[in-house]
Structures are given as structure tokens and as C-alpha cells.
């Protein structure tokens, strides 16, 4: 019997009503009601002492909320930050709940706002270069972040246990939306951005569409988390196979909704618009704009620091399935980048994913699944959603980025051509292995062959597509690598 705590013991709030959770808890504390979303809609304002920060945030977008040009439109943000923003680092530790604990909910909003300002400040010269001479690339960003920005952002990051740079969940996307009408909930048309770099305060803009489509996808993650939890908890408790199968079916229902939302990206954020606002979400590692990193003034003895940029690869939904389904990744430098991205997720996400990874291995989820034909089919269908998700992500990278710019790295610092195919090929390989070993009709089969044949009309078309896509992907990657000299 395992001495490890059960999933419910390890995550005591997982079945709680999110409305009852204290703001002393990280806003990304996972529940089966909210999944990987924050347990409450992020605040759009800050304590009064941070008014100088809010003033800059209000004025810096290329197009402000009222439609007028902002500081970035005139390349005036840098001087304004230096002239106007005091160092408010000492104020961060004063943000507490009634019992004196750090108010991590408000601190995350503060981290979001300082990280937006930091990225805008560091990348403003790249924005100017891109606007004036797009064919000449991005040039160099600023390599020093003033203490008035670096200090508070670094302190917030310490309290949240995340790197001090803009991240996907805690800043750019999942803690960066509000509701136009709270009574209408999380329907896409009701979502609005809190912060934006370019034109995103207009909900019809491509910048808004890019970010809010991610929010719209992750809002369906509650069912995904609940399904994974049912699979793990049932195996922990020695429950029935029917319950495990029901957990897989919950995951499948969630993934259908998530991928339907993902497909809307094409219409909500136009491929031709992406490169414009993308300038501001690059990181400061493995990027030509920051060959020597960035000095955070007054931080870590003024040694240059390096952080990966915001990336949808920091999302937790597909990694959850990677761990639950025990998808083996190749031992490559590209997989090493995948592991580095883990640090940029909120602490509760990291802890939950690590737990699922350990529990799946301990309980042998995949070995359990393949002992029964129906569960094996459900496993294969779930793997197929991981494939489909990653394939669509590859199409986005190809159409939004690869066809439009020679810049060799994605915003997170991964190689733009080869990184996504590394993970996509891994899930395709596992699907082929599972099918060929457990579901492919074999000569001389009898008895169970009737059961197997009843599933062929479901799984055979899936596998035909997988084999075709695998060959197509290899040819595409080879062609793009040759064209780019990779």
C-alpha cells in the first residue's frame, strides 16, 4: 500500500466552492469547479498607493481604451517610466488579508501589472524597430530594468514562487480578463482584457482575440480536471473499471469543447495581425534582442538575468494529459525546454501536475487501461485529442509565424520549426504503439475478435489519419528546416 498521500489529501481544496476560498491562497488553487482558471475573476484595479503604476498602464498601450494613441505609439514609455514611477517595493508586503497573511490574489494582480510594464519597457525599442523597418528584424531591447519596476515585480514573484517575468497564467492570459456583465458569466462575448499592449482593449481586435480564446479554452478545464481526478482517485481507492471509464469520458467531453474553442482562434485573431502584438511577449533568453540578458537594477547583485517569454506552451491542460496518459517524450534538448516551461506555471498548477505525474506512474494508469478493450479505446481516443490539439497548435505556428517571419525562435525561446513537432511526434508514436499492440486485428484471433471488430469503425479512421499526419509532419518539418538552414 502506498505511503504517499491520496490526491484528495494532497489537495484539500479541490472539491471546495471557489467562492469560499481565502485570498491568502494562490488564485490558481485548483478546484473541480474552476479547473486551471483562477478561483475568482482577477481585479482590474490596485491599492491606491500604486496609482503611479496604474497611470502608466492606462497610458502605455499603442491604442488606449478611448481610441487615442498611447505612449508606445509615440515610443515615449521608457522616459515616462523613469520620470514618473517611484520604487514601491516596500508596499508589496503590506498587501495582506484580514489575518495578516499575504493577499496572494491581489499580489498576483500586481505581478500582472508590473510584468506588463516590464515587457513594454524592455521591448519598446524592438517595437519601434519593427514599426519603422520590419524587414530588419527587432534590433535590441533595453538591457536594464529600472528598480522601480524590477523591485516590486521581483518581490511579487518571490511571494508567488514564480519567475519574475511575464507568464501565461499569472499575467498575460488567465489573470488578465474581466467580465463586461458579471451576470452573463464566462461566455466569450462577455470577456474583456484588463491589460493589453497594442489594440487589445478593443474586444474585436486580434490581440484581444488571441488572449481571450485561451481564456475561453481553459474555462472548460474544470471537467478535464474532474475527469483526471476520477481516474486517479478510482484507482487509488480500488474502484471499478466502469468508474475509470467514466473519468475518461469526462476528459473526452472536456476536450471536445476545448478544441472547438481553440478552432475559433482563426476568426477571432487574424494570422496577419499576430506579428504586431507578438513583439511584446518575447522573453529574454535565447532571443537575439537580449544577447546579454537583462539587469534587474538592485536585484541579485545586478547580474544579468534570463527568463523565457510568455507562451501558450505554459498552459496546464495538455501537460495534465501528458502525465495522466504517461506519454513518453524523447530525450532531446527540445524536451528539456518543455521541462523548463514548467517553472512558469502557477505553483498550484505545478504541484498538481507533478502529483498526477507521480500517481499515474505509481498506479500504472496506461497499463491498467490496456488490460481491457473498452478502456484501451477510451485511452486511444484521449491520446487522439492530445494529438489533435498539438496538430492544431502546429498549424497556428505555421500560419501565424513560420510563413510570415524568419525570426528563428518562438516567444518562449524554443526553436519555432522543430519544437512543437517534438511533442506531436511523441503522442503519434504512442498511439501507433497502443493500436498495433492491443487493438489492431490479428490473424487467427477468435473469441475477443467480435469485441475488437465492434470498435474498428471508431479507431481505424483515427489511426489512418495519425499515420498520414505523421508522414506529412516529417516532410513539412524537413522542408522548413532546409529553407531556413536549421
TrEMBL record:
It is an enzyme of class 1 (oxidoreductase). Heme b binds at residue 393. It holds the Pfam family IDO. It catalyses: L-tryptophan + O2 = N-formyl-L-kynurenine. GO terms for biological process: L-tryptophan catabolic process to kynurenine. Its EC number is 1.13.11.52. Keywords: Dioxygenase, Heme, Iron, Metal-binding, Oxidoreductase. Gene3D superfamilies: 1.20.58.480. InterPro entries: Indolamine_dOase (IPR000898), Trp/Indoleamine_2_3_dOase-like (IPR037217). Coiled coil: none annotated. GO terms for molecular function: heme binding; indoleamine 2,3-dioxygenase activity; metal ion binding. Transmembrane segments: none annotated. Produces N-formyl-kynurenine through the oxidation of tryptophan. Belongs to the indoleamine 2,3-dioxygenase family. This is Indoleamine 2,3-dioxygenase. It comes from Monascus purpureus (Red mold).
Amino acid at each position: 500500500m502506498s505511503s504517499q498521500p491520496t490526491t484528495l489529501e494532497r489537495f484539500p481544496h479541490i472539491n471546495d466552492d471557489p467562492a469560499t476560498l481565502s485570498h491568502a491562497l494562490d488564485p490558481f488553487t485548483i478546484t473541480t469547479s474552476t479547473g486551471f482558471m483562477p478561483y475568482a475573476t482577477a481585479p482590474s484595479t490596485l491599492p491606491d498607493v500604486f496609482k503611479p503604476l496604474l497611470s502608466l498602464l492606462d497610458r502605455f498601450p499603442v491604442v488606449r481604451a478611448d481610441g487615442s494613441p498611447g505612449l508606445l505609439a509615440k515610443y515615449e514609455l521608457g522616459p515616462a517610466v523613469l520620470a514618473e514611477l517611484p520604487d514601491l517595493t516596500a508596499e508589496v508586503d503590506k498587501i495582506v488579508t484580514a489575518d495578516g497573511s499575504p493577499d496572494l490574489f491581489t499580489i498576483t494582480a500586481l505581478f500582472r501589472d508590473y510584468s506588463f510594464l516590464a515587457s513594454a519597457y524592455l521591448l519598446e525599442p524592438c517595437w519601434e524597430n519593427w514599426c519603422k523597418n520590419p524587414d530588419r528584424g527587432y534590433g535590441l531591447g533595453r538591457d536594464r530594468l529600472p528598480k522601480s519596476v524590477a523591485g516590486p515585480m521581483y518581490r511579487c514573484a518571490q511571494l508567488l514562487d514564480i519567475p519574475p517575468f511575464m507568464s501565461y497564467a499569472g499575467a498575460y492570459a488567465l489573470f488578465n480578463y474581466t467580465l463586461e456583465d458579471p451576470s452573463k458569466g464566462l461566455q466569450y462575448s462577455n470577456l474583456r482584457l484588463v491589460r493589453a499592449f497594442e489594440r487589445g482593449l478593443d474586444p474585436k481586435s486580434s490581440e484581444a482575440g488571441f488572449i481571450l480564446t485561451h481564456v475561453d479554452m481553459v474555462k472548460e478545464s474544470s471537467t478535464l480536471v474532474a475527469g483526471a481526478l476520477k481516474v486517479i482517485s478510482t484507482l487509488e481507492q480500488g474502484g471499478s473499471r466502469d468508474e475509470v471509464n467514466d473519468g475518461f469520458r469526462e476528459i473526452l467531453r472536456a476536450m471536445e469543447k476545448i478544441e472547438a474553442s481553440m478552432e475559433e482562434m482563426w476568426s477571432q485573431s487574424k494570422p496577419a495581425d499576430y506579428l504586431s502584438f507578438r513583439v511584446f511577449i518575447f522573453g529574454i533568453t535565447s532571443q537575439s534582442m537580449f544577447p546579454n540578458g537583462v539587469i534587474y537594477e538592485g536585484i541579485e547583485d545586478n547580474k544579468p538575468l534570463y527568463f523565457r517569454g510568455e507562451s501558450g506552451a505554459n498552459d496546464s491542460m495538455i501537460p495534465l494529459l501528458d502525465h495522466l496518459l504517461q506519454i513518453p517524450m524523447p530525450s532531446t534538448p527540445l524536451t528539456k525546454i518543455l521541462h523548463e516551461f514548467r517553472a512558469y506555471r502557477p505553483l498550484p498548477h505545478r504541484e498538481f501536475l507533478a502529483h498526477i505525474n507521480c500517481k499515474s506512474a505509481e498506479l500504472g494508469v496506461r497499463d491498467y487501461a490496456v488490460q481491457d478493450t473498452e478502456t484501451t479505446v477510451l485511452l486511444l481516443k484521449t491520446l487522439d485529442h492530445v494529438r489533435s490539439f498539438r496538430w492544431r497548435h502546429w498549424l497556428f505556428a505555421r500560419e501565424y509565424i513560420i510563413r510570415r517571419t524568419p525570426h528563428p525562435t518562438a516567444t518562449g525561446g524554443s526553436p519555432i520549426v522543430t519544437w512543437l513537432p517534438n511533442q506531436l511526434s511523441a503522442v503519434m508514436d504512442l498511439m501507433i504503439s497502443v493500436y498495433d499492440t492491443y487493438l489492431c486485428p490479428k490473424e487467427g484471433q477468435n473469441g475477443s475478435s467480435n469485441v475488437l471488430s465492434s470498435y474498428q469503425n471508431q479507431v481505424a479512421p483515427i489511426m489512418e489519419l495519425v499515420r498520414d499526419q505523421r508522414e506529412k509532419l516529417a516532410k513539412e518539418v524537413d522542408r522548413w528546416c532546409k529553407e531556413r538552414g536549421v
